[in-house]
């Protein structure tokens, strides 16, 4: 009888070596493949855009901004107030708000005068809440008036910048 089809493992020592080899050799191959794949450069077309879009998706919905209550209050410009309070509606024309810079929708409002515009801002008009939804402790009437002038002038108005109040407002608490 020939040993042509016989077992390659002839002793228990060979069996133990084969069991360990059949377990560890694939693990070593997988480990080497992982190192090889991770060592490549990641710069490719659209990599930066993909990172920015992923960052936008996981960006928090709100942000906490802590202020020093004892610090002197800084008066915001009309543009800063517009960006913080007004742009959400006036930037897109939401809820019938006149779009920023659109002379045709601002002309009738500017024609009524600065006092009428300020009354609309302070008391609210249509879907716009009083003070544009801002808190009087954070944004003063003077700052709102600067935002009104900024928006009206962007649409072709010729309103002059309002005069600063004589005394600065109280610190935000």
How would you describe this structure to a colleague?
The mean pLDDT is 81. The chain is mainly α. It has six helices and no strands.
What's the oligomerization state?
Answer: single chain
Which fold name fills CATH's third level, the topology of the domain at 78-154?
Cytochrome Bc1 Complex, Chain D, domain 2
Number of strand segments? 0
Identify the overall geometry. Answer: rod-shaped
Examine the secondary-structure arrangement and name the CATH architecture of the domain at 78-154: Orthogonal Bundle
Q: Could you tell me the radius of gyration in angstroms?
A: 35 Å
Run of helices and strands: HHHHHH
Could you list the spans in which at least 5 consecutive residues all have pLDDT below 50? Answer: none
CATH class of the domain at 78-154: Mainly Alpha
Largest sheet: none
Indicate the structural class.
Answer: mainly alpha
Distance between the termini: 100 Å
Kindly state the percentage of residues in helix.
40-55%
Number of helices: 6
Mean pLDDT: 81
CATH superfamily of the domain at 78-154: Cytochrome c-like domain
Residue share in β-strands: under 5%
């Amino acid at each position: 009888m020939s040993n042509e089809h016989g077992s390659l493992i002839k002793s228990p020592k060979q069996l133990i070596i084969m069991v360990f080899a059949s377990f560890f050799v694939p693990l070593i191959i997988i480990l080497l493949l992982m190192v090889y794949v991770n060592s490549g450069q990641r710069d490719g077309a659209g990599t930066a855009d993909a990172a920015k879009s992923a960052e936008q998706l996981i960006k928090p919905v709100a942000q906490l901004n802590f202020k020093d209550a004892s610090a002197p209050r800084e008066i915001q410009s009309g543009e800063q107030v517009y960006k913080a309070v007004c742009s959400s509606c006036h930037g897109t024309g939401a809820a019938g708000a006149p779009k920023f810079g659109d002379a045709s929708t601002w002309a009738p409002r500017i024609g009524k005068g600065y006092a009428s515009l300020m009354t609309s801002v302070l008391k609210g008009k249509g879907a716009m809440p009083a003070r544009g939804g801002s808190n009087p402790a954070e944004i003063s009437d003077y700052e709102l008036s600067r935002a009104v002038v900024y928006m009206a002038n962007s649409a072709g108005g010729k309103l002059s910048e309002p005069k600063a109040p004589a005394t600065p407002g109280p610190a935000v608490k």
